[in-house]
Amino acid sequence: MIIGFTPLSTERFRATTAASKPPYVHNRRRCDCGKQITVKQLQQYGLCVSCVRIKAAS
Known about the structure:
The chain is mainly α. The chain is built from three helices and two strands. The protein has helices at 7-20, 39-45, 49-57; strands at residues 28-30, 36-38. The longest helix has 14 residues, at 7-20.
């Protein structure tokens, strides 16, 4: 006998999980240098890690 979730509990779980996650975590954008970075990183730093390090070094 296989024990699993009922369709209603699965739908409820997916709706709750989707509502609790911020939508921007996995979206990708391009930095000014052309690298793809996450939207979260772009919002926090404004640049990719390489550009931030270059800017800090100069």
